[in-house]
Amino acid sequence: MVKKWLSKLFRSPKSPKDDITTARRESEIQKKMKHIQNIDTQLLSLDNQIEEAKRKKSDLMNQRWSVQGMPSTWSNNNSENKILVEVTHESDQFWSIHDKLRETMDDAWISKIWHVQNSSLWTYYSFQKSKLTMAGINHNERHVWHGTSSLDPSVIYNDQKDGFTMQFSIHGAWGEGIYFSNQSCFSDQNSYEPSRRDRIRRTTERPDFMEGEKEMFLAKLLVGNEIRISRSHGFTSGDLQRMTEVDVKSGTRYITVTGEDNRQDNKSNVWIVYENGRAYPDYLVRYYNGQRDPERTPY
Q1: What angle is formed at CA 122 by the lines to CA 121 and CA 128, rounded to 5 degrees?
Q2: 120, 140, 119: which is closest to 222 by C-alpha?
Q3: Which string of DSSP letters, residue by residue, matches 5-58?
Q4: CA torsion 139→257→263→187, rounded to 10°?
């Protein structure tokens, strides 16, 4: 009791000024709390607006793709508009391409697959398809392999018009043209393997190559009217003349040469076109041959 009495006796009296100071502090704290609540409310509103904008953007992109006729296999979650979109091994696309690659190369293993989503290139390809339709020519569209030899595939998949062009054609058994094959083993002969100089100066979005890796395209090709020409006698000027002849069935000239390559155990059908814009680089496939490497091919 004595201690309590002494404590009250010597306690400093509370001045009105102290009460004012305390009230001001409480008022300032309340103002700050209210301001923070207002900011949080605005942030929440912005978050909702952003989500709504994302939904609207997705809807508009779907509408645009529908009008342009974009492939249903393209990813519409490609917010960065990347041209190369990786295909993971969880997808059916991956295993379909895997099986197609190994049909004639059973020692081939896939490291990576990218879906090429180049809207400008696809629009031009679709335009070429429309031209065939207007001319009354069956598209005769095929999924075929193409190797770019020493040309970096990025030159093709980043192009904004033609993609596969005669500028980078090769001179083969059927003359100078753009060659495609239904068998991977044929196009593997012209697959892309970066040189030492390419490895140093590469700035593309693809990761660095590991030992023994190479790449080639699985492309969509508008074959149209085709004429079969044997390679046994070599490609002659007479064959060029035959290409300008009119197909009796359709009344239009041939636009693609078809041949058969017998240099390997597996005969491969080959299609050669001599103009730009009739093929689209659908997938870029990176692979290697030999024993399966668990690090590159963990499945």
Answers
A1: 95
A2: 140
A3: HHHHHHSPPPPHHHHHHHHHHHHHHHHHHHHHHHHHHHHHHHHHHHHHHHHHHH
A4: -50
CA distances from residue 232 to 182, 184, 235, 237 in whole angstroms, order as listed? 19, 22, 9, 15
C-alpha torsion sign, points 163, 169, 175, 179: negative
Among candidate residues 184, 208, 205, the one with its CA nearest the CA of residue 111: 208
- What angle do helix axes 16-68 and 119-134 make, rounded to 10 degrees? 30
Q: Are the C-beta atoms of 145 and 216 separated by less than 8 Å?
A: yes
Reading the chain (299 residues) residue by residue, the pLDDT tens digits are: 555 544 554 455 555 666 667 777 777 888 888 888 888 999 989 888 888 887 787 677 666 656 666 787 887 766 677 899 999 999 999 999 999 999 999 999 999 999 999 999 999 999 999 999 988 888 999 999 999 999 999 999 999 988 999 988 878 778 888 999 999 999 999 999 987 556 545 556 888 899 899 999 999 999 998 888 776 555 565 565 566 566 666 667 778 888 877 665 556 789 999 889 899 999 999 999 999 999 888 88
Q: Does residue 268 sit in helix, strand or coil?
A: strand
Rounded CA separation 221/128 (Å): 11
